Amino acid sequence: xxxxxxxxxxxxxxxxxxxxxxxxxxxxxxxxxxxxxxxxxxxxxxxxxxxxxxxxxxxxxxxxxxxxxxxxxxxxxxxxxxxxxxxxxxxxxxxxxxxxxxxxxxxxxxxxxxxxxxxxxxxxxxxxxxxxxxxxxxxxxxxxxxxxxxxxxxxxxxxxxxxxxxxxxxxxxxxxxxxxxxxxxxxxxxxxxxxxxxxxxxxxxxxxxxxxxx
Length: 214
Hints:
With 214 residues, the protein is of the alpha/beta class. The protein contains 7 helices and 6 strands; from the N terminus they run αβαβααααβαβββ. Strands 1, 2, 3, 4, 5 and 6 form a 6-stranded mixed beta sheet that branches.
């Protein structure tokens, strides 16, 4: 399937989606990485374009399906909510009550109390990366013949700001995706030396191996 012509006045997000689409829907298979055993990519976008992004991703997913692909959509917000609920209602109520108490004194104190609670749920190799890997493995186990035509798209990262570090997520996913290509949708800004600032607020992180679109 040939890539469509890119409009001259296209936005950075449009350009990123155009380039990603071209590299995914390719006669020789997905070309989002030059490394066969490291099939990760990041699509960086302005957080203010979240809803536009969702529409473009839905269209990309439909185009991939029409081209014979399977698309695994992974919602980080949903995974976090599942992990919070798994702690039990007593834990949730205690954390909410204490966070409200701390926030009444200052927003910073409330955030500082909440940060280690949430980070303990999502960080590390057994954190939210495990949930992402399980979503992929569940599909590939049920459809082993579709692995070469399957894409995982990880989104809603902005919903777990400021507790999330995408570089750590991808690092902990490495080797756990069954060689399925993975695209992380990254709300933030891009600086020098491919540094990415999550939500355009956190200090730029340069610890990235994947290709960054656009």
